Amino acid sequence: MKKVLLSLSACLILTMHTLQAQIPGGICNWDNDKKAAIVLTFDDWSPGHYPIAVPELKSRNLVGTFFATNSTGSYSWPQIRIAAADGNEIGNHTKTHPHLTTLTPAQLNDEIRAMKISIDQNITTQKVTTFAYPFGEYNAAVLDSVKKSGHIAARGVQPASSYPYNFAATENAYYNIATYAMGPTVTIATFNGLVQNVTTGGGLLTFLYHSIDDATTSHGDNWYSQVKQADLQAQLDKLVSVKDVVWITTFSQAIKYHKEKACATLTQTQVPDGTTWKFTLTDTLSNNTIYNQPLSIKLKMHGVNYMSVLQNGVALPIDRIRNDSILFHAVPDKGEIVLTTQLITSTKNMQAASDNITVSPVPSNGLITIHAAKTINPSSVIVSDLAGNILFHQPHVSFADDVQIDLSGFKEGAYLIHIYEGEQLITKKAIRVN
Prior knowledge:
By secondary structure, the chain is α/β, with parallel strands linked by helices. The protein has helices at about 50-60, 75-85, 105-120, 140-150, 190-200, 230-240, 250-260, 350-355, and strands at about 5, 25, 35-45, 65-70, 90, 130, 155, 180, 205-210, 210-215, 225-230, 245-250, 265-270, 275-285, 295-300, 310, 315, 320, 325-330, 335-340, 355-360, 365-370, 380-385, 390-395, 400-405, 415-420, 425-430. The chain has 3 domains: about 10-30 and about 265-340; about 35-260, TIM Barrel; about 350-430, Immunoglobulin-like (Sandwich), CATH 2.60.40.3080. Helix 1 packs parallel to helix 6 (about 230-240), helix 3 runs parallel beside helix 4 and helix 5 (about 190-200) runs parallel beside helix 6. One of its GO terms (biological process) is carbohydrate metabolic process. GO terms for molecular function: chitin deacetylase activity.
């Protein structure tokens, strides 16, 4: 068994005056307070996407959006289900990749709505919410059909000249999102420059890939604007290197976050009293089934040691505590948010989750090992003393292997290990001895 040793840069400050107080913080522009967002999109489900793009993304823990069409009969639902299971988005690129502006209303409906229904029926783990125009062509009738068939955004083929955060000033602007087309002439220097530009601008950058194949084109993917596997690898490696500052996500998640944030309000309902702080998070979007993307909230704690964050009575993972600020996710319209200095767990039955986690040895003179009998999702791990003072915090810890924490620098005594499993907070005791 392997063991792992744990050793919105621009966040909008909302000025609410609820209870005559200003909230010291607010909703971050992007997930986990990242500076910008980047989306990788792949059109047509061409022959190189499944054998090359899908595993190259997975090996780096990256995701993208595959706008699939069945124009050549190359569709393989089992393969597409595997891509979706890896966390990739499957978007709508029509049934036969036609010139949409030449079609009748009935034909548009068959190409757009019917294809969305087909994908939803075959990929049951997600719902289609985004669209890519074949050839980048659309008019008012096409846009109307895309909207009415249940898509929240669409991607074109034209590049952006800059990458500001307010890239969609109107609702229709979300249905012509710019993109940078990748091909054999795009150098890694150009790619890196684009990444730097969006990081500086704070907005959204989408890349558009078509054919992808290896050096000898062994998969026969020379449909259009082929990118070699080695070049794709270099580009993905660059994205891995900037993951701490740029959110690499799917098209749907980026658009949902941006739309929700644009109309969300964080309202203070109880001023901090040294132990408790309360808020509501609401937005003006009517479809909470679609718009359920968690938003990152970053707040200044002013020296108060908040141990728990709850929404509607359910414990939320704390993503980061640093420089007297706390960062966590919450979903708009999902109930009151409470920050408290108490260690409070979810109202759900926690016995099964608690039994799944063991900490050993107890006592320990140095390393302790956290073991999950059943694999859990990446979780936050916090070590506190019995008074609730946080001494160690590591977000997004993978429990695919055992996790180790070195207590050798701690004083002798008892400590609490706090681990989130889903919506539940599990607490275990550790004892440090010499």
